[in-house]
Design a protein that fits this description.
By secondary structure, the chain is of the alpha/beta class. Strand 10 and strand 11 form a beta hairpin. It is elongated, with a radius of gyration of 26 Å.
Length: about 550
């Protein structure tokens, strides 16, 4: 039975490290050839530079480095077709390319036609769009090339089919968000059926600043049936056999295709957060992580994610008590630190706070105590954590969740001080769900931390819901406003009290300046507080206008 053997290589590239990425590709090609008699090895979109390379694409030396890497790979593996992604200038225009290496040279290349410019994508800033299909022949099979958004648009797939393609290779850098995998699989099945053609879809994995790429590379037959799905959030090699007579794919050896995860899968979100932290810390060269462990649920969940990402030996937790910190909080923080085996210490901020108050005594004379004093507490804690970061070479993780960041329930230069906010795109209600999920096998987050009312403990008997609506209501309002762009009137029509909705929406709007100065956070939704959202800080927009 004539077959074409294909290997999908799902790797974790390091943006900008063209030499390192090239070496990683070479190792994977060597492994693929040793495991499978493969004719074609396929890598993700922009493999050589990693995705997204952003303004590194503007560096004058980029072309030289990319060309050198392509030549090296072509000469090292002349007897196998290597399909990879890279940027390349042609006639003074930069393109997002998919190239085919064979026989020691660049055999052919395809320029991406559909350049996404929405949500986190900004490709039109850098690339020109291609305008024609590209196919190459292996074992008598005409193989077409497309890149990521080309599949979502569909027209380039139709062009490729019309030009004679019998099998489609689609190179991807598709980031994770909740429900994304179900969308991908539905799209792939539809394109395969529409064009009666098998499709091989190769995606990257890894964390890149706020983005996380989850892999889940796939192959789909012409009838829309899913042949195989690669691992999620892990590097993976998947070998395929294409029957040239039946024009169908199968995995070799066969892999069982599991059902698509629940769109709201807590497991997928948790794994995305862990991978995002792991790659951000390791790729940026930090020795470890330090965070403030308050005895509350946000810092408790952040600590668990940090330990799962890096191991307990690279994580430090610091309790920074003040006169309003309850014994319960101190006890719960100590308990979690002990269970998780991290380095733990307690540093009182009382002396620092008193020093600030003495220094400010004359300036504050004749004024009432208000949130200013609360913010001094939070900023004292920020100073402690940043000092430890500087001294030890550890990254400070902040612990604010999406609900708090949305309405400005955080202190600028205080609890917002740090390098990465793990929960920045995780609403408070999901924080509770994730904490319970992490305790599924053994209790690492004390049950009392999950069950007791959330509090910043910056004032006596303080509770979050003294200042905010109940989180069940708040998170629904925020989702309608931030992720679905509903108006105030539309949200009120959903059954919420008008004054509450107006208050929440106003808080979202006036705190844009805070979020702009906050550390980046890992994206798990379709509208995170990062590349997805670009509202002007200074603006005259009025609710209801």
């Amino acid at each position: 039975m004539p077959t074409l053997n294909i290997t999908m290589v799902q790797i974790n590239p390091h943006v900008g490290d063209i030499t390192g990425n090239c070496e990683q590709m070479a190792l994977n090609i060597t492994r693929a050839l040793s495991e499978h008699s493969c004719d074609v090895v396929v890598f993700p979109e922009l493999t050589l530079t990693g995705y997204p390379p952003e303004d590194l694409l503007l560096r004058p030396s980029l072309e030289v480095r990319v060309t050198r890497a392509i030549e090296q790979l072509a000469q090292q593996f002349p007897d196998v077709y290597v399909v990879l992604g890279y940027p390349r200038s042609v006639g003074g225009k930069l393109y997002n390319m998919a190239g085919v290496l064979f026989g020691g040279k660049l055999l052919c290349e395809y320029a991406k036609q559909c350049l996404p410019n929405y949500q986190v994508f900004d490709e039109k800033r850098y690339f020109h769009a291609g305008d024609s299909p590209q196919t190459f022949k292996v074992a008598g099979v005409a193989v077409g090339l497309t890149i990521c958004e080309d599949m979502w648009d569909g027209q380039p797939v139709a062009q490729s089919k019309a030009s004679g393609a019998e099998l489609m290779l689609n190179l991807n850098a598709s980031p994770f968000h909740r429900d994304k995998q179900a969308q991908r699989e539905g799209l792939l099945a539809q394109r395969a059926k529409d064009h009666e053609m098998s499709i091989v879809y190769v995606n990257q994995i890894g964390g890149q600043d706020e983005l996380v790429f989850d892999g889940a590379s796939m192959a789909c037959n012409a009838d829309g049936s899913l042949v195989v799905r690669a691992k999620r959030f892990e590097e993976d090699l998947v070998h395929l056999c294409y029957d040239t007579q039946t024009q169908s794919l199968q995995s070799a050896p066969p892999r069982q295709v599991s059902q698509v995860s629940d769109p709201e899968s807590v497991d997928m979100v948790y794994r995305a957060l862990v991978l995002g932290v792991k790659d951000y810390v390791n790729k940026n060269g930090f020795k470890g992580i330090v965070l403030g462990l308050s005895g509350g649920i946000d810092s408790a969940l952040t600590l668990a994610i940090a330990v799962d990402a890096l191991g307990a030996s690279r994580v430090r937790a610091v309790m920074m008590p003040f006169r309003y910190t309850s014994d319960m909080s101190k006890s719960d923080a100590q308990q979690q630190a002990d269970v998780m085996g991290v380095h733990y210490q307690s540093i009182s901020i009382e002396p620092m706070y008193e020093a600030f108050m003495v220094s400010l005594e004359d300036s504050f004379k004749g004024t009432e105590v208000d949130t200013t004093e609360q913010n001094i507490q939070a900023r004292s804690r920020g100073v402690v954590l940043m000092a430890l970061s500087n001294k030890l070479g550890y990254l400070v993780l902040t612990t604010g969740n999406k609900s708090e960041m949305a309405v400005g329930y955080a202190t600028l230069y205080g609890d917002m001080a740090g390098g990465l906010d793990v929960l920045k795109d995780v609403p408070k209600t999901l924080v509770f769900t994730l904490a319970k999920y992490r305790n599924r096998d053994a209790e690492v987050i004390p049950k009392r931390v999950i069950e007791r009312p959330p509090s910043a403990e910056l004032a006596p008997d303080q509770k979050d819901e003294d200042s905010l609506p109940p989180y069940d209501d708040l998170d629904q309002i925020l989702e309608y406003y931030i992720e679905h762009d509903l108006s105030c009137d539309d949200i009120v029509a959903k059954g919420f009290e008008g004054d509450v909705v107006k208050k929440v929406l106003r808080l979202v709007d006036i705190n844009e300046y805070k979020r702009r100065q906050a550390p980046i956070g890992i994206r798990v939704s379709e509208r995170a507080f990062g590349r997805d959202r670009r509202y002007p800080i200074t603006n005259g927009w009025k609710l209801g206008a």
